[in-house]
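TASK: fixed-backbone design
INPUT:
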Protein backbone atom coordinates (compact mmCIF):
# COMPACT_ATOMS: atom_id res chain seq x y z
CA UNK A 1 0.00 0.00 0.00
CA UNK A 2 1.37 3.41 -1.01
CA UNK A 3 0.13 6.95 -0.49
CA UNK A 4 -0.68 7.35 -4.19
CA UNK A 5 -2.71 4.13 -4.46
CA UNK A 6 -4.61 4.47 -1.16
CA UNK A 7 -3.94 7.78 0.62
CA UNK A 8 -6.70 7.28 3.20
CA UNK A 9 -5.58 3.81 4.22
CA UNK A 10 -1.89 4.77 4.13
CA UNK A 11 -2.37 7.69 6.52
CA UNK A 12 -4.64 5.63 8.80
CA UNK A 13 -2.07 2.83 9.11
CA UNK A 14 0.73 5.34 9.67
CA UNK A 15 -1.19 6.99 12.52
CA UNK A 16 -2.06 3.64 14.14
CA UNK A 17 1.59 2.51 14.05
CA UNK A 18 2.70 5.89 15.37
CA UNK A 19 0.32 5.76 18.33
CA UNK A 20 1.04 2.09 18.96
CA UNK A 21 4.71 2.99 19.30
CA UNK A 22 3.91 5.08 22.37
CA UNK A 23 1.79 2.38 23.98
CA UNK A 24 -1.73 3.30 22.81
CA UNK A 25 -3.89 0.23 21.97
CA UNK A 26 -4.85 -0.29 18.34
CA UNK A 27 -8.59 0.17 19.03
CA UNK A 28 -8.05 3.52 20.76
CA UNK A 29 -5.64 4.59 18.01
CA UNK A 30 -8.26 3.77 15.38
CA UNK A 31 -10.89 5.81 17.26
CA UNK A 32 -8.44 8.72 17.46
CA UNK A 33 -7.87 8.38 13.73
CA UNK A 34 -11.60 8.52 13.01
CA UNK A 35 -12.01 11.59 15.22
CA UNK A 36 -9.02 13.30 13.62
CA UNK A 37 -10.30 12.54 10.10
CA UNK A 38 -13.74 13.93 10.96
CA UNK A 39 -12.16 17.07 12.41
CA UNK A 40 -10.00 17.60 9.33
CA UNK A 41 -12.96 17.10 6.97
CA UNK A 42 -15.25 19.43 8.95
CA UNK A 43 -12.59 22.12 9.44
CA UNK A 44 -11.48 21.97 5.82
CA UNK A 45 -15.09 22.28 4.64
CA UNK A 46 -15.75 25.30 6.84
CA UNK A 47 -12.53 27.05 5.77
CA UNK A 48 -13.35 26.31 2.14
CA UNK A 49 -16.44 28.50 2.59
CA UNK A 50 -14.15 31.55 2.60
CA UNK A 51 -13.11 30.76 -0.96
CA UNK A 52 -16.72 29.99 -1.98
CA UNK A 53 -17.89 33.39 -0.70
CA UNK A 54 -15.16 35.20 -2.62
CA UNK A 55 -15.80 33.18 -5.78
CA UNK A 56 -19.56 33.73 -5.72
CA UNK A 57 -19.29 37.48 -5.11
CA UNK A 58 -16.71 37.75 -7.87
CA UNK A 59 -18.74 35.75 -10.40
CA UNK A 60 -21.99 37.56 -9.65
CA UNK A 61 -20.13 40.86 -9.98
CA UNK A 62 -18.97 39.88 -13.46
CA UNK A 63 -22.44 38.71 -14.49
CA UNK A 64 -23.93 42.02 -13.30
CA UNK A 65 -21.19 44.11 -14.97
CA UNK A 66 -19.35 45.18 -11.82
CA UNK A 67 -16.03 44.26 -10.25
CA UNK A 68 -17.03 42.60 -7.01
CA UNK A 69 -14.43 42.45 -4.19
CA UNK A 70 -11.31 44.22 -5.43
CA UNK A 71 -9.85 46.28 -2.57
CA UNK A 72 -8.58 44.02 0.20
CA UNK A 73 -5.74 41.93 -1.16
CA UNK A 74 -5.05 41.01 -4.80
CA UNK A 75 -8.37 40.53 -6.62
CA UNK A 76 -10.08 41.08 -3.26
CA UNK A 77 -9.21 37.58 -2.00
CA UNK A 78 -8.89 38.75 1.63
CA UNK A 79 -12.37 40.30 1.73
CA UNK A 80 -14.04 37.14 3.13
CA UNK A 81 -11.43 37.06 5.91
CA UNK A 82 -12.30 40.63 6.82
CA UNK A 83 -16.00 39.72 6.81
CA UNK A 84 -15.28 36.75 9.07
CA UNK A 85 -13.35 38.90 11.56
CA UNK A 86 -16.17 41.44 11.53
CA UNK A 87 -18.72 38.75 12.37
CA UNK A 88 -16.52 37.44 15.18
CA UNK A 89 -16.40 40.87 16.80
CA UNK A 90 -20.10 41.71 16.54
CA UNK A 91 -22.19 41.71 19.70
CA UNK A 92 -24.21 38.64 20.65
CA UNK A 93 -27.84 39.58 21.25
CA UNK A 94 -30.36 37.22 22.82
CA UNK A 95 -33.95 38.51 22.64
CA UNK A 96 -35.84 38.97 25.87
CA UNK A 97 -38.14 36.01 26.42
CA UNK A 98 -36.36 33.80 23.90
CA UNK A 99 -36.25 30.07 24.51
CA UNK A 100 -32.48 29.86 24.87
CA UNK A 101 -32.00 26.15 24.22
CA UNK A 102 -33.56 25.98 20.72
CA UNK A 103 -32.46 29.55 19.98
CA UNK A 104 -28.77 28.75 20.51
CA UNK A 105 -28.94 25.21 19.15
CA UNK A 106 -30.56 26.18 15.81
CA UNK A 107 -27.47 27.65 14.04
CA UNK A 108 -25.30 24.76 15.23
CA UNK A 109 -27.81 22.24 13.94
CA UNK A 110 -28.05 24.01 10.58
CA UNK A 111 -24.29 23.80 10.00
CA UNK A 112 -24.07 20.26 11.36
CA UNK A 113 -26.76 19.07 8.93
CA UNK A 114 -24.55 20.13 6.00
CA UNK A 115 -21.31 18.78 7.44
CA UNK A 116 -22.87 15.39 8.18
CA UNK A 117 -23.58 14.90 4.47
CA UNK A 118 -19.84 14.93 3.73
CA UNK A 119 -19.34 11.85 5.91
CA UNK A 120 -20.67 9.47 3.23
CA UNK A 121 -19.65 11.29 0.04
CA UNK A 122 -16.86 9.40 -1.79
CA UNK A 123 -14.16 11.92 -2.71
CA UNK A 124 -12.18 9.17 -4.48
CA UNK A 125 -12.36 5.40 -4.81
CA UNK A 126 -10.72 4.88 -1.39
CA UNK A 127 -11.25 8.34 0.17
CA UNK A 128 -14.47 8.76 2.13
CA UNK A 129 -15.60 9.23 5.69
CA UNK A 130 -17.56 5.99 5.92
CA UNK A 131 -18.65 3.55 3.24
CA UNK A 132 -22.26 3.34 4.44
CA UNK A 133 -24.44 0.83 2.60
CA UNK A 134 -27.47 3.16 2.96
CA UNK A 135 -25.54 6.35 2.27
CA UNK A 136 -28.21 7.93 0.06
CA UNK A 137 -30.90 7.30 2.68
CA UNK A 138 -28.57 8.79 5.29
CA UNK A 139 -28.18 11.97 3.22
CA UNK A 140 -31.96 12.36 2.95
CA UNK A 141 -32.32 11.79 6.70
CA UNK A 142 -29.69 14.29 7.86
CA UNK A 143 -31.05 16.86 5.42
CA UNK A 144 -34.15 17.09 7.57
CA UNK A 145 -32.01 18.33 10.47
CA UNK A 146 -31.59 21.62 8.63
CA UNK A 147 -35.37 22.03 8.54
CA UNK A 148 -35.48 21.30 12.25
CA UNK A 149 -32.87 24.02 12.81
CA UNK A 150 -34.98 26.54 10.91
CA UNK A 151 -38.08 25.71 12.95
CA UNK A 152 -36.10 25.93 16.17
CA UNK A 153 -34.73 29.32 15.14
CA UNK A 154 -38.19 30.70 14.43
CA UNK A 155 -39.77 29.25 17.56
CA UNK A 156 -36.92 30.01 19.93
CA UNK A 157 -36.60 33.65 18.84
CA UNK A 158 -39.93 34.60 20.46
CA UNK A 159 -40.69 36.78 17.45
CA UNK A 160 -43.86 36.45 15.38
CA UNK A 161 -42.06 37.46 12.17
CA UNK A 162 -39.33 34.87 12.78
CA UNK A 163 -41.99 32.23 13.48
CA UNK A 164 -43.93 33.03 10.30
CA UNK A 165 -40.67 33.01 8.34
CA UNK A 166 -39.80 29.61 9.79
CA UNK A 167 -43.24 28.22 8.86
CA UNK A 168 -42.88 29.47 5.31
CA UNK A 169 -39.35 28.08 5.04
CA UNK A 170 -40.42 24.70 6.39
CA UNK A 171 -43.34 24.57 3.95
CA UNK A 172 -40.99 25.26 1.07
CA UNK A 173 -38.38 22.72 2.15
CA UNK A 174 -40.85 19.93 2.85
CA UNK A 175 -42.68 20.56 -0.43
CA UNK A 176 -39.53 20.36 -2.55
CA UNK A 177 -38.26 17.29 -0.70
CA UNK A 178 -40.99 15.19 -2.30
CA UNK A 179 -39.82 15.47 -5.95
CA UNK A 180 -36.19 15.46 -4.80
CA UNK A 181 -36.52 12.08 -3.08
CA UNK A 182 -38.49 10.69 -6.01
CA UNK A 183 -35.76 11.79 -8.44
CA UNK A 184 -33.22 9.79 -6.40
CA UNK A 185 -35.22 6.60 -6.95
CA UNK A 186 -33.97 6.40 -10.54
CA UNK A 187 -30.21 6.24 -9.73
CA UNK A 188 -31.04 3.71 -7.00
CA UNK A 189 -32.95 1.54 -9.51
CA UNK A 190 -30.16 1.75 -12.08
CA UNK A 191 -27.32 1.02 -9.65
CA UNK A 192 -29.21 -1.41 -7.41
CA UNK A 193 -27.67 0.15 -4.31
CA UNK A 194 -27.99 2.98 -1.80
CA UNK A 195 -24.22 3.03 -1.30
CA UNK A 196 -22.77 6.27 -2.66
CA UNK A 197 -19.50 4.70 -3.82
CA UNK A 198 -21.40 1.86 -5.47
CA UNK A 199 -23.59 4.35 -7.34
CA UNK A 200 -20.43 5.98 -8.70
CA UNK A 201 -18.84 2.68 -9.71
CA UNK A 202 -21.98 1.62 -11.61
CA UNK A 203 -21.86 4.68 -13.85
CA UNK A 204 -20.04 3.30 -16.85
CA UNK A 205 -22.36 5.76 -18.61
CA UNK A 206 -23.19 8.83 -16.57
CA UNK A 207 -26.74 8.80 -15.28
CA UNK A 208 -27.20 12.38 -16.49
CA UNK A 209 -27.12 10.96 -20.03
CA UNK A 210 -29.54 8.18 -19.12
CA UNK A 211 -32.04 10.34 -17.21
CA UNK A 212 -31.29 14.05 -17.73
CA UNK A 213 -34.76 15.07 -16.55
CA UNK A 214 -34.25 13.39 -13.15
CA UNK A 215 -30.88 15.13 -12.82
CA UNK A 216 -32.49 18.48 -13.68
CA UNK A 217 -35.31 17.98 -11.15
CA UNK A 218 -32.84 16.95 -8.46
CA UNK A 219 -30.77 20.08 -9.12
CA UNK A 220 -33.81 22.38 -9.08
CA UNK A 221 -35.25 20.89 -5.90
CA UNK A 222 -31.85 20.95 -4.20
CA UNK A 223 -31.50 24.67 -5.00
CA UNK A 224 -34.95 25.19 -3.48
CA UNK A 225 -33.86 23.18 -0.43
CA UNK A 226 -30.95 25.56 0.06
CA UNK A 227 -33.27 28.53 -0.37
CA UNK A 228 -31.19 30.27 -3.01
CA UNK A 229 -32.53 32.47 -5.80
CA UNK A 230 -35.04 32.19 -7.34
CA UNK A 231 -36.34 30.22 -4.33
CA UNK A 232 -34.98 32.55 -1.63
CA UNK A 233 -38.31 33.73 -0.24
CA UNK A 234 -37.36 32.22 3.13
CA UNK A 235 -35.00 35.12 3.75
CA UNK A 236 -35.59 37.49 0.86
CA UNK A 237 -33.90 40.86 0.80
CA UNK A 238 -37.14 42.46 -0.36
CA UNK A 239 -38.97 41.46 2.83
CA UNK A 240 -39.41 43.79 5.78
CA UNK A 241 -37.52 41.27 7.92
CA UNK A 242 -34.98 38.60 7.03
CA UNK A 243 -37.19 35.65 7.96
CA UNK A 244 -36.49 32.98 10.55
CA UNK A 245 -33.04 34.40 11.41
CA UNK A 246 -34.15 37.98 12.06
CA UNK A 247 -33.22 37.87 15.77
CA UNK A 248 -29.69 36.50 15.24
CA UNK A 249 -26.49 38.53 15.24
CA UNK A 250 -22.76 38.01 15.34
CA UNK A 251 -21.37 34.53 14.92
CA UNK A 252 -24.80 32.92 15.32
CA UNK A 253 -26.02 34.73 12.21
CA UNK A 254 -22.69 33.90 10.53
CA UNK A 255 -23.34 30.19 11.03
CA UNK A 256 -26.55 30.43 9.00
CA UNK A 257 -24.53 32.32 6.38
CA UNK A 258 -21.82 29.63 6.31
CA UNK A 259 -24.40 26.85 6.08
CA UNK A 260 -25.97 28.53 3.03
CA UNK A 261 -22.73 28.72 1.03
CA UNK A 262 -21.48 25.30 2.09
CA UNK A 263 -24.86 23.72 1.31
CA UNK A 264 -24.72 25.17 -2.20
CA UNK A 265 -21.36 23.50 -2.84
CA UNK A 266 -22.57 20.30 -1.18
CA UNK A 267 -25.54 19.91 -3.54
CA UNK A 268 -23.14 20.48 -6.45
CA UNK A 269 -21.02 17.67 -5.02
CA UNK A 270 -24.06 15.38 -4.73
CA UNK A 271 -25.13 16.09 -8.32
CA UNK A 272 -21.60 15.20 -9.46
CA UNK A 273 -21.53 11.97 -7.46
CA UNK A 274 -25.04 10.75 -8.28
CA UNK A 275 -25.44 11.84 -11.91
CA UNK A 276 -22.00 12.82 -13.30
CA UNK A 277 -19.91 9.79 -12.42
CA UNK A 278 -18.34 11.25 -9.29
CA UNK A 279 -14.62 10.59 -9.11
CA UNK A 280 -14.59 8.35 -12.20
CA UNK A 281 -12.26 9.26 -15.02
CA UNK A 282 -9.12 8.05 -16.79
CA UNK A 283 -6.69 6.67 -14.20
CA UNK A 284 -8.96 7.47 -11.23
CA UNK A 285 -9.05 3.89 -9.93
CA UNK A 286 -5.26 3.61 -9.98
CA UNK A 287 -4.53 7.07 -8.61
CA UNK A 288 -7.29 8.17 -6.19
CA UNK A 289 -5.96 11.73 -5.98
CA UNK A 290 -6.61 12.05 -9.71
CA UNK A 291 -10.20 10.95 -9.07
CA UNK A 292 -10.51 13.68 -6.47
CA UNK A 293 -9.42 16.20 -9.11
CA UNK A 294 -12.07 14.89 -11.52
CA UNK A 295 -14.73 15.20 -8.83
CA UNK A 296 -13.74 18.78 -7.97
CA UNK A 297 -13.83 19.79 -11.65
CA UNK A 298 -17.35 18.41 -12.09
CA UNK A 299 -18.51 19.94 -8.80
CA UNK A 300 -17.05 23.33 -9.71
CA UNK A 301 -18.90 23.34 -13.03
CA UNK A 302 -22.24 22.55 -11.33
CA UNK A 303 -21.56 25.15 -8.63
CA UNK A 304 -20.73 27.76 -11.29
CA UNK A 305 -24.07 27.05 -12.96
CA UNK A 306 -25.86 27.57 -9.61
CA UNK A 307 -24.06 30.89 -9.07
CA UNK A 308 -24.86 32.17 -12.57
CA UNK A 309 -28.49 31.06 -12.16
CA UNK A 310 -28.68 33.00 -8.89
CA UNK A 311 -27.40 36.13 -10.58
CA UNK A 312 -29.76 35.82 -13.55
CA UNK A 313 -33.25 34.75 -12.52
CA UNK A 314 -35.88 36.84 -10.75
CA UNK A 315 -37.48 35.65 -7.53
CA UNK A 316 -40.66 33.56 -7.56
CA UNK A 317 -43.77 34.49 -5.64
CA UNK A 318 -44.69 32.06 -2.89
CA UNK A 319 -47.78 30.80 -4.77
CA UNK A 320 -45.73 30.27 -7.94
CA UNK A 321 -43.14 28.37 -5.95
CA UNK A 322 -45.70 26.03 -4.40
CA UNK A 323 -47.52 25.52 -7.71
CA UNK A 324 -44.23 24.65 -9.39
CA UNK A 325 -43.40 21.78 -7.06
CA UNK A 326 -46.87 20.28 -6.55
CA UNK A 327 -48.35 20.84 -10.02
CA UNK A 328 -45.26 20.43 -12.21
CA UNK A 329 -42.23 18.75 -10.63
CA UNK A 330 -44.02 16.10 -8.58
CA UNK A 331 -46.32 14.79 -11.37
CA UNK A 332 -43.47 14.82 -13.89
CA UNK A 333 -41.06 12.88 -11.70
CA UNK A 334 -43.77 10.36 -10.75
CA UNK A 335 -44.43 9.69 -14.43
CA UNK A 336 -40.70 9.48 -15.12
CA UNK A 337 -40.06 6.98 -12.32
CA UNK A 338 -42.84 4.66 -13.50
CA UNK A 339 -41.82 4.83 -17.15
CA UNK A 340 -38.13 4.36 -16.33
CA UNK A 341 -38.81 1.29 -14.20
CA UNK A 342 -41.01 -0.38 -16.83
CA UNK A 343 -38.88 0.52 -19.85
CA UNK A 344 -35.55 -0.36 -18.21
CA UNK A 345 -36.83 -3.79 -17.23
CA UNK A 346 -38.23 -4.37 -20.71
CA UNK A 347 -34.99 -3.32 -22.44
CA UNK A 348 -32.85 -5.47 -20.16
CA UNK A 349 -35.05 -8.52 -20.78
CA UNK A 350 -34.82 -7.81 -24.52
CA UNK A 351 -31.01 -7.85 -24.29
CA UNK A 352 -30.48 -4.25 -25.39
CA UNK A 353 -26.96 -2.89 -24.97
CA UNK A 354 -26.22 -0.22 -22.39
CA UNK A 355 -25.65 2.55 -24.93
CA UNK A 356 -28.89 1.62 -26.74
CA UNK A 357 -30.85 1.83 -23.47
CA UNK A 358 -29.18 5.14 -22.71
CA UNK A 359 -30.14 6.60 -26.09
CA UNK A 360 -33.76 5.47 -25.78
CA UNK A 361 -34.10 6.81 -22.25
CA UNK A 362 -32.44 10.11 -23.18
CA UNK A 363 -34.93 10.68 -26.01
CA UNK A 364 -37.79 9.69 -23.71
CA UNK A 365 -36.67 12.16 -21.03
CA UNK A 366 -36.48 15.00 -23.53
CA UNK A 367 -39.94 14.09 -24.85
CA UNK A 368 -41.44 14.13 -21.33
CA UNK A 369 -39.76 17.49 -20.69
CA UNK A 370 -41.18 19.00 -23.89
CA UNK A 371 -44.66 17.62 -23.21
CA UNK A 372 -44.62 19.01 -19.67
CA UNK A 373 -43.45 22.38 -20.96
CA UNK A 374 -46.25 22.44 -23.54
CA UNK A 375 -48.89 21.52 -20.96
CA UNK A 376 -47.71 24.16 -18.50
CA UNK A 377 -47.57 26.87 -21.14
CA UNK A 378 -51.03 25.93 -22.37
CA UNK A 379 -52.39 26.07 -18.83
CA UNK A 380 -50.86 29.50 -18.27
CA UNK A 381 -52.26 30.74 -21.58
CA UNK A 382 -55.81 29.61 -20.70
CA UNK A 383 -55.75 30.98 -17.16
CA UNK A 384 -57.46 34.40 -17.09
CA UNK A 385 -55.65 37.29 -15.52
CA UNK A 386 -57.16 38.37 -12.19
CA UNK A 387 -59.38 41.41 -12.50
CA UNK A 388 -58.14 43.84 -9.87
CA UNK A 389 -60.14 46.76 -11.21
CA UNK A 390 -63.30 45.71 -9.41
CA UNK A 391 -61.94 47.09 -6.14
CA UNK A 392 -61.29 50.52 -7.62
CA UNK A 393 -63.79 53.36 -7.58
CA UNK A 394 -65.46 53.55 -10.99
CA UNK A 395 -64.61 56.68 -12.92
CA UNK A 396 -67.14 58.24 -15.31
CA UNK A 397 -65.63 58.37 -18.78
CA UNK A 398 -67.06 60.00 -21.94
CA UNK A 399 -68.31 57.70 -24.63
CA UNK A 400 -66.05 59.34 -27.16
CA UNK A 401 -63.54 62.14 -27.42
CA UNK A 402 -66.11 64.84 -28.16
CA UNK A 403 -68.83 63.95 -25.70
CA UNK A 404 -68.66 65.24 -22.11
CA UNK A 405 -70.68 64.03 -19.12
CA UNK A 406 -73.86 66.05 -18.77
CA UNK A 407 -73.38 67.82 -22.10
CA UNK A 408 -76.16 65.85 -23.81
CA UNK A 409 -73.88 65.13 -26.73
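OUTPUT:
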Amino acid sequence: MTFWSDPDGFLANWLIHLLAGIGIPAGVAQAIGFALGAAILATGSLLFVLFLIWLERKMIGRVQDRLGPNRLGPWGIFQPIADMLKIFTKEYITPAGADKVPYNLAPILTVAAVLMVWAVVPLAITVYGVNLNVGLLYIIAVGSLGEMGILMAGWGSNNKYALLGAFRAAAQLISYEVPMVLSLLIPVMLSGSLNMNQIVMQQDIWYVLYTPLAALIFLITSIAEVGRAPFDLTEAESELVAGFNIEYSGLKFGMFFVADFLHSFTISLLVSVIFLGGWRGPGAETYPLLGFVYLMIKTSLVNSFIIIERASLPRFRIDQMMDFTWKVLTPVILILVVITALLEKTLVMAGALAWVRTGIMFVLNIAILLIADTVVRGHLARRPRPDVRGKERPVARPENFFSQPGSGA
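COMMENT: The chain has two domains: 1-89, 100-379.
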